[in-house]
Amino acid sequence: MKDIIIVGGGLAGLTAGMYSKRAGLDTLLFEKMFTGGQASTTNMIENYPGFDDPISGPDFAMKIENHARKFGLEIQYDEIISLELEGDIKKVFIENKEYQAKAVILAMGAEPKKLGLDREDEFRGRGVSYCATCDGAFYRDKDVAVIGGGDTAAEDAMFLAQYANKVYLVHRRDTLRATRILADRVVASKKIEKVWDSTVEAILGEDHVTGIRVVNVKTGEKRVINLDGIFIAIGVRPNSELIKGIITMSEAGYVLTNDSMETNIPGVFAAGDLRQKPLLQLITAAADGAIAAYSAQKYIIEAFGE
Ligand SMILES: Cc1cc2nc3c(=O)[nH]c(=O)nc-3n(C[C@H](O)[C@H](O)[C@H](O)COP(=O)(O)OP(=O)(O)OC[C@H]3O[C@@H](n4cnc5c(N)ncnc54)[C@H](O)[C@@H]3O)c2cc1C
Question: Is the CB of 11 under 6 A from ligand 1?
Fold first, then answer.
């Protein structure tokens, strides 16, 4: 049996792992895809203290993972498909195997929201993407659209403008929600055509995306834009399906914790974007991870006398 099992290898999980290993606890972290989580899908991080030069998401993730591994964190690349969290011994399950721990830290983070359009899933990987950093290079000299108006949409539009022939930024309002510095860059870019007050009504194409149909929400006017790819950046939703009905969460599916990252079940903690909090960022994910590990350590001492 492990002391702590961490579910999710984003910044919250990796930081929790680093802190708990450094505290001498036998810790195992499960990651279903790649460490770094959402951070690995961004091309530039420029607001994490200590990194005064912008750093790419994958480089940042690699640094954090290396740091955690220096303390001996064990990382296993498997998806946790169910959990039994009541009682002193917590059980987590991958497809064919059960693992046990005294405490569990939930750090499954969040993932991009979908537009919810017909054929969106069918076109995923064939012109529809949720990660400009991952897929942008495939669209060199092509026309693409970014859908959204927040920081991610603004960053994606700027990033894609380096490769693409033309970038359409489709936003349902007439100003961007993005941080001022990012919004100003987008507005100033001649390569980015701003399609204000508009939503995407349909994704067009046969085997691959060839265009989108947008509708102006003020005038009702429709327009077909011919393009090769669309990048959807309309926000994220928490990865909390796995713990629905087990862990108390908000209506939107974010886990409710106290300041010690404790959930409604003793010995179960939550950290990072999975958790209901005012600011979903790397710095708060790291802080949550550290607190969750500290609280788990305290819980193990109290509950198991170790
Ligand atoms: C495009 C983009 C750009 C961003 N830019 C910035 C920025 O510049 N600065 C900033 O501060 N923040 C930025 N953010 C936000 C930041 O990335 C998140 O706040 C942070 O990554 C949250 O970390 P996390 O560990 O809580 O979750 P995540 O990063 O979402 O990581 C969760 C991990 O859990 C794994 N997982 C989920 N379910 C399971 C399971 N069942 N079994 C095993 N593993 C599982 C996932 O694969 C994932 O790796 C950005 C986000 C995006 C999407």
Answer: yes
- In this structure, the residue with its CA closest to atom 19 of ligand 1 is 281
Q: Cα(187)–Cα(12) distance, rounded to whole angstroms?
A: 33
CATH code for the domain defined by 114-232: 3.50.50.60
CATH superfamily of 2-111+236-304: FAD/NAD(P)-binding domain (3.50.50.60)
Mean pLDDT by 10 residues, the chain (306 residues): 98 98 97 94 85 91 96 97 96 97 98 93 91 86 97 94 96 94 95 97 96 98 98 94 96 97 98 94 96 98 89
Rounded CA gap, 14 and 67, in Å? 9
The residue extents of the domains of the chain are 2-111+236-304, 114-232
Residue 135 known to be catalytic: yes
| Predicted model pTM | 0.84
Give me the pLDDT at residue 297, please: 98
Our CA angle for 88, 92, 94, nearest 5°, is 165
